[in-house]
Amino acid sequence: MDFNFTEEQRQFRDSLDRYLREAYDFDTRRGIIGSAEGWSRAHWQQLAELGALAIALPEDHGGFGGNAFDTLLVMEALGRAMVVEPYIATVVLGAGVIADAGSDAQKAALLPAVAGGEQLLAFALGEPRRRYALTQIATRARQDGDGWSISGRKTAVLHGDVADRIIVAARTDGEIDSAQGISLFVVDADASGLSRHGYPTQDGQRAADLHFDKVRVGADALIGPQHGALPIVEKAVDAANVALCAEAVGNMAALIEQTVNYLKTRKQFGVPIGSFQALQHRAVDMYLHAEQARSMAYLAAAKLEAGVAERRRAVSAAKVLVSQSARFVGQQAVQLHGGIGVTDELAVSHYFKRLTMITMLFGDVDHHLAQFGGQLAA
Amino acid sequence: MDFNFTPEELAFRDEVRAFVDAELSPGLRDKVLGGKRLSKDDFIGWHKALYRKGWVAPNWPVEYGGTGWTAVQRHIFEEELADAGAPATLPFGLRMVAPVIMAFGSPAQKEYFLPRILSGEHWWCQGYSEPGSGSDLASLKTRAERQGDTYIVNGQKTWTTLGQHADWIFCLVRTNPEARKQEGISFLLIDMKTPGITVRPIIMLDGEHEVNEVWFDNVEVPVDNRVGEENKGWTYAKFLLGHERTGIAEIGRSKRWLKQLKQIATQQPASDGGKLIDDLRFRDRVAQVEIELMALEVTNLRVIAAEMEHKAPGPEASLLKIRGSEIQQTLSELMMLALGHDALPFQHAALDPGYDGPLAGPDYGPPLTGQYFNMRKTTIYGGSNEIQKNIISKMILGF
């Protein structure tokens, strides 16, 4: 066991933090969110040049071969700066699925392009009138000649409107809720029959509802085993949840720092409000939550390559605790800021909104508590 | 970052397990696991077994008899012992007064006291709190007046845990009533056999005798038994409070309790006639506390790792105290709740080892309700959780 980051990892984190501090401040972010595209290709290129996109991708395909802790460091830094670019959609989910289950040809075609910042990917999983169970897939892919024809609807696909390619989970066999019969396909975003309705999300990012209407893809679009993609989907979603946990840890660290500064400088009744014990203890509770959340993010990252049961258990545990912490820290940061906390002007409300949405993605507290509780080993 | 044990760490774990198998008697183990009363001999016997192996003071520097273990080895050691049902070593000598003597004691004090703490020859207790001085510890009133080479001590200490067994007590006493309250305090080491000391039991809400009042009536203490400088005792007291706090989270025991909770909830019925562990409302509560404990375990490892790099103890020590005590309380509460109406019988005698009289309810029932009542102390002692929050606030806010 070792509870320290390597010197190399610390330097990488520092360089990423420095770049984001200097080039990605709150006003810059606001400008990006307000732009027509809702993300910045220039900053994405910079992240590519810093190695942030390639860090955890395989060395054979343009990556640096890093592990879950490298991704964690990136996500924490992105969380501190509230970066809105499509890191989870493209790198963690999209490239993650390809690296995990793609053919050599798929890896060669996509991974170096992701590492270099040239290709954006999205992962189309959730469907209308469904919740968090990963088997609830009604979108169908039917054999069509030597390829496939995909039909169905996907909803709240992260960065689904800006991606160049979509990885879609579709049913090649079985009924909705069946664990068997799920397959993954990679589809060009401009494929005929695919329509995308893009929109901003509550937290300043982008997402899209996708309609697949007899979208034709070739045989080489299939990723991994036909009918047997559920384990790949589970692993990808676990990886996304660990990334979200790490991002939340970064969000919370920045939010606590700003709240502490506010408590020290804001005066009422002639004194800094941080001199009031009720507020001091609230700030301490925020700190306690954030530290425990950090521990759980580390634990989940450590278990991402463990056996399936151990991995799923750790990830659900992390998502429960990090989400509860995120809720508390976000709400209390707003409360301690008073009126200015509920305006759009300060970063506080933006962190709060991002933290809130993190808790809603890929399973909320109740979902993961049930998952974890179902595996309570006596 | 690597959360996997290395082959060396796994080998060390096997060594610890082999030691426990060989040295921990089934009788003592069953007492600990069954929540029975432990005698003075139980504590001392286990202390001496660890001492003979050279493992009684993992927190000490090697030159004084420590183990030189890594943070992970210490974690493995504590976890294995707690899981196996070994009694915890008591903190008062090994983890409280010893580090103060090492840091501030005279050569003679080090030479005399440290080996006797290590061997278990001296049982120590703590003389900090007074009836009028709880959270405001620096307001303490026990007086030590100097007459030549002797202090004459008068006053009263309280909440003295297991003081009924103690050979020595370390005390904060007022040596200068004129100075600001923190600046008139000295740190004395007092032999409990000295004439004028009276120990009176305080019976706690669970009916147990765990803590005491200690009265001092013209007790003569050699000036040589003062640690460090006169009137600098508050500095040493704070050093003690900030030192070596990782144990206070009681993670090993909480993990054992969690296991026990699951076993009990598997045996107890739910209202629908099934097993309690399958009642989703109860299951969620077990799951929630397990997750909190998983997080605290990692936090604890992070803190020990930082401590090993000799970083000054930060707010993390208070964090461990707060969350560790909350988790102990939750676990003890859930174990009581699991009993349903079997939580009612007060079966004091059933906690005596060897009791074979009639039992109301399941055989694991008798200690659980008292344990819940007893655990309320954890958020109060060692600096109440509210005081811990004040400490963290000072560190992160400056107020």
From TrEMBL, chain A:
Keywords, in A-Z order: FAD, Flavoprotein, Oxidoreductase
MF-aspect GO terms: acyl-CoA dehydrogenase activity; flavin adenine dinucleotide binding
Annotated ranges, domain Acyl-CoA dehydrogenase/oxidase C-terminal: 233-369
A matching Pfam family: Acyl-CoA_dh_M
InterPro entries given in the database record: Acyl-CoA_Oxase/DH_mid-dom (IPR006091), Acyl-CoA_Oxase/DH_mid-dom_sf (IPR046373), AcylCo_DH-like_C (IPR036250), AcylCo_DH/oxidase_C (IPR009075), AcylCoA_DH/ox_N (IPR013786), AcylCoA_DH/ox_N_sf (IPR037069), AcylCoA_DH/oxidase_NM_dom_sf (IPR009100)
Span of domain Acyl-CoA oxidase/dehydrogenase middle: 122-215
Alphabetical list of Gene3D superfamilies matching this protein: Acyl-CoA dehydrogenase/oxidase, N-terminal domain, Butyryl-CoA Dehydrogenase, subunit A, domain 2, Butyryl-CoA Dehydrogenase, subunit A, domain 3
Family, similarity comment: Belongs to the acyl-CoA dehydrogenase family.
PANTHER family, A to Z: ACYL-COA DEHYDROGENASE, ACYL-COA DEHYDROGENASE FADE28
Record's protein name: Pimeloyl-CoA dehydrogenase small subunit
Organism: Sinimarinibacterium flocculans
From TrEMBL, chain B:
Gene3D superfamilies associated with the record: Acyl-CoA dehydrogenase/oxidase, N-terminal domain, Butyryl-CoA Dehydrogenase, subunit A, domain 2, Butyryl-CoA Dehydrogenase, subunit A, domain 3
Domain Acyl-CoA dehydrogenase/oxidase N-terminal: 6-121
Keywords carried by this UniProt record: FAD, Flavoprotein, Oxidoreductase
Cofactor(s) listed in the protein's UniProt record: FAD
Keyword Flavoprotein: yes
GO cellular component, one term: plasma membrane
Domain of life the protein comes from: Bacteria
Pfam families: Acyl-CoA_dh_1, Acyl-CoA_dh_M, Acyl-CoA_dh_N
Record domain Acyl-CoA oxidase/dehydrogenase middle: where: 125-219
Entry GO MF terms: flavin adenine dinucleotide binding; oxidoreductase activity, acting on the CH-CH group of donors
InterPro entries found in the cross-reference section: Acyl-CoA_Oxase/DH_mid-dom (IPR006091), Acyl-CoA_Oxase/DH_mid-dom_sf (IPR046373), AcylCo_DH-like_C (IPR036250), AcylCo_DH/oxidase_C (IPR009075), AcylCoA_DH/ox_N (IPR013786), AcylCoA_DH/ox_N_sf (IPR037069), AcylCoA_DH/oxidase_NM_dom_sf (IPR009100), Mycobact_Acyl-CoA_DH (IPR052161)
Keyword Mitochondrion: no
Domain Acyl-CoA dehydrogenase/oxidase C-terminal: 231-396
Protein family per UniProt: Belongs to the acyl-CoA dehydrogenase family.
Protein name (Swiss-Prot/TrEMBL): Acyl-CoA dehydrogenase
Native organism: Sinimarinibacterium flocculans
